[in-house]
Design brief:
- By secondary structure, the chain is of the alpha/beta class.
- It contains 19 helices and 22 strands.
- The relative contact order is 0.09.
- The chain has a 6-stranded mixed sheet, sandwiched between helices. The chain has a 6-stranded mixed sheet with strand order 16-19-20-14-21-22, sandwiched between helices.
- Helix content is 41%, strand content 22%.
- Among the domains are: 119 residues, Rossmann fold, CATH 3.40.50.300; 75 residues; 74 residues, Helix Hairpins.
Amino acid sequence: MAATGPAFAHVKDLRLSLGGAPLFDGAEFVLHKGERAAFIGANGAGKSTLMRMLAGVAEPDAGEIGYASGVKVAMAAQESNFDGFATLRDYACAPSVSLRGSTLATPAHQAEAALENFGLDPDRAPTRLSGGEARRATLARALGADPDVLLLDEPTNHLDIAAIEDLEKRIAQFRGAALIISHDRRFLERVSTATLWLRQRRLIKLDRGYTAFEQWAENVELEEARTLARLETHLRAEEHWLQRGVTARRSRNEGRRRKLLAMRAERRERKGELGGASAAIQAERGGESARLVIDAKKISKTYAEKTIINDLTLRLMRGDRLGVVGPNGAGKTTLLEILLGRREPDTGHTKLGENLRIAYVDQSRAILDTSATLWETLAPQGGDQVMVHGRPRHVAAYAKDFLFGPEQLRQPVSALSGGERNRVALAVALAQPANVLVLDEPTNDLDMDTLDALEDMLAGYDGTVILVSHDRAFLDGVATQVIGPIGNGRWAETPGGWADFEREYGGVTPKRQATATPKATSAAPIQPKRQTKLSYKDERRAAEIDALLPKLSHEIDTLEQHMGDPDLFARDPKKFQQLVARIEAARGERDTIEAEWLEIELKREALSAEE
């Protein structure tokens, strides 16, 4: 429950219009000492604008913003600005906000302590800071001011999981009032004691944290829908339900969750079949198999005498969704590049499956041409259609899936915000005819509605996904397995999401597993001779599959080329139907023998482990 301390801040009848349209109207709420309020609202609803008004750097059209006497306010804005500061000490000493003519300068010793608590050197020049370092400097300045009211706009952006968990502890210990905008659902669940919801231009408040938000929001909408139905019609009520879609989203999330749990169960079963013998993978036998996407065997990489990766073996199968976690600088990007064959390991080797088509969205969003318009980016060949997994869609309709309105289609990408550019990059990548999707920090700057949309799209994606993320809730909702560093260059993998990885390895080091010691017996039973290699029958079948798979793959490619003729159906519908029937049969044959190949390889690995 939210704290009931004295009121530190109050907002009354706040109004603001942009371009003639009201952004919010009659917004009211009170922040009490000890409250940590999650600030929720759709993309573009005006959350950041309202927070800037609370900080005194923007003005409403009407209404009142008041603070208790002597209350100090500090804000950590979403974008950091280090212009004019020679050192981080200078930056941290400067006022974090200007509050209606008054400033909050921080004493040097206090600023230095805050920076050092966030792992930053006060004498360092603020040039060439990484995204995570810039975010920590912004937080250090805000917290170092020792405010009574703390305003945080996307505080977890660019932070790794360890830094986010450290911030959670700091916010939990904060004794003042806090207002927090964040897309990180797990972070909000752990730090918030109240929830503010900006919807339909009005603010409503729940005196409970974000954990209770979804159910509360559903109840609010259902009650409003019932009222509307009594006043108007049942049809209008259904339209109102769809206006935000919490009810529909909850149902969709349940379906997505069931599918993910089934995929994780399959992953656990496969991992169990390996019998802990992953180091004995024999990838060469199935090199042409499309079922095996990436096979990394005993890879190691060292930089400046620091071992980043040590003796890692990893197999990625078609349909897997691998989450890569770890602190900034742990080697996640290096691991990605080695797995994708873009960088050579010092030892070991990586083998890629046949016919891989990879779409890679890196942190810099290099996939985008910032001089092109949104329309040109989504439809680079011209026209008004974009091909999404082989099916045409209108540019405006596809853009709407990523929360872009028709009026934005002619804007250059360079004019879009960081979150909007991220959404464009995802739209481009997801439209490509790729069977491997690699996403490096895809959740940065995304709002919750877009995160839900992205999870929906990945739930229906029929290829393989590799994603680097610090968003724990996103990993729990998407990944079928997670891999992360556990010390001394060692990496560990576990089926499931972040919660499973954290439970098994504590997020840092593996838990010690108790090992039962068998009791001695007076007479040990005679053990049968163990099989140490495949039977003649299995070896012969493996050789047959090695020869058959390339032929089937070639046949499927040839059939696809014939069916790519746009005039074939009109010219010879009978032949078209024959091609359709044969390609479906060939794909079925390939899937069958791929499964047979995998079974033989699993058996081979288990036997090798016993030697």
